[in-house]
Queue: 2 jobs
Job 1
Amino acid sequence: MTTDDGSTSNGPIDFSGPGMMRIQESPQRVSGMRVPSSWKLPGKPADLDEFADDAWRQTGFLCGEELGLIAAGLDLQARIAATGYTPAARNMTMAAFASLWSRAFLSTSDAIGLIRRGSYQSALPLIRQAIEFIGAERGVGDEMDEWRRFTHEAYGRHEATRSTEIGLGSYFSGESIAADANLRLIYKAASDFGRPNFGPTAVFVANEAGHEKYPLVFADQAFHLGWAQLTLSWALRLNVAQLHLALHLNQYFPASEELRAEAAQHVRAVESLLERPERCRLEEWQDESGRRRHLVVEFKRRPADASQRLLF
């Protein structure tokens, strides 16, 4: 195929070297990039019922340190992401990372709003989704041709439906999730707890159930310290994973030394919080057959309650 300037083109495929075949750079240019100058967590909804309202209040009182670190981490992320629009970094490779990052960012922020109002189970799909986006960010760095192929094939005219054909651009990097011990553990739990499995369902709707009774609470949004600490700790882990990734993409997000130092200090503060033994946390327990199971420890509804260990 001959181009307007007389050169030869093979479409999106570039045979530029002996035995080499790669996808050409994306045809688009980054013509604009709007990033918030700062970030705040979602505010309190005006129409919460008494249980969700109490959950919001108690979460702020008992989990204020976690909320402060999550807000600071998201604010750091926004400021680092904004550096991607500097002229040296402004290209479609940067856009691949930033596009996935944007979705992980909002999924995490939206999950916090649900956790604060006692909707712990509703936050789980968002946490799982955020991990998939972070995993995709990690994976696409080694598979950038997948993104480039999409950018070449998307936005064409589909005459049969008289539409612009975007295409699905299927992409998932399970290997990247599995390679991170923290993300793998959280992803598996968020997936299992978010599905209609009977064990997590019983704990969400009948928290005090046992062999003798099943006290069902329909649409329960009452505050639960264990669920709040557990899900907020997962959000903090996502924050740390994203910051680590962004700081290693300095070619595309050239953060200043001051900003990098602030991020490193933030990560240390998060790790210090998560290491406290009295916090509700998820561990992995392997049984005699080699099956990996979820063990939740220090699980309790109120600070004064006796803690439980739950095996799923």
Job 2
Amino acid sequence: MESVSDLFWEASVEEMKRGYRHRAADSEYVCLICGETFEEGLIYPSDGRLYEAGKYAGVHVEREHGSVFEFLLGLGKKLTGLTDLQRKLLHYFYYGYTDSEIVDAMDGGSTSTIRNHRFSLREKEKQAKVFLAIMAAIDGKSQKERKAELMSRERRAKLKQEYLNTPKKMGIFQIRNLVNGKIFLGSSPNLPGKENSVLFQLRMGSHYNKALQQEYQEFGADNFVFETVAEIKHREEATQEEYKQELEDLLELWMEELQPYGDRGYHKK
């Protein structure tokens, strides 16, 4: 099975921009951030509305992971090549700030300086396009070799069916610091997918909980574990909305029980 990082880096620019991709061979859409899949031909309910797989993939990305733009921008300098100043400017450009509004927001500089930054970033975009074209030319040589290494279509279909027929584990999870015992609590209707998503974000330095992210970088990945605290059993008659409410109620109970605040955790009251 592909890892989430493989899914992400093998996607096109357009697929990265929307946060999911279509795999025609498997008749499914897959989230590039957590790896969750959505099968074509199925209807997915959410908040009283029904969605086809492609539309629901977009709903999933927005609901579970927030703005794809902010996620990409938060990947850090090592992956984006952007300085802190450039990230701030791109944030303002994305949300439609004028040059004078950006100057006011940054408490300094001039509109001419902002225009120069716009020009520099456009030049960076052109360089990136040329580099992508160069790498695509290189990759084209080994495309036949990569195809030869793929598992047979029948085997893929069998694995896919086994995956679809297996109910996803849902419930409460914790990320525990093995050094100081502090924990971060959360809930998910897909614990394996959530584990992939959370650990991916921590590795990339983009997890929304800054205290957890800081200590993850300080102590290292080997000193953190993802653990299931409690599970909700699947019931054939239950709806997604009922599961959602159960997860919210169960998380509230475990927050009260474990009190993951201060020296005991990464949450704020």
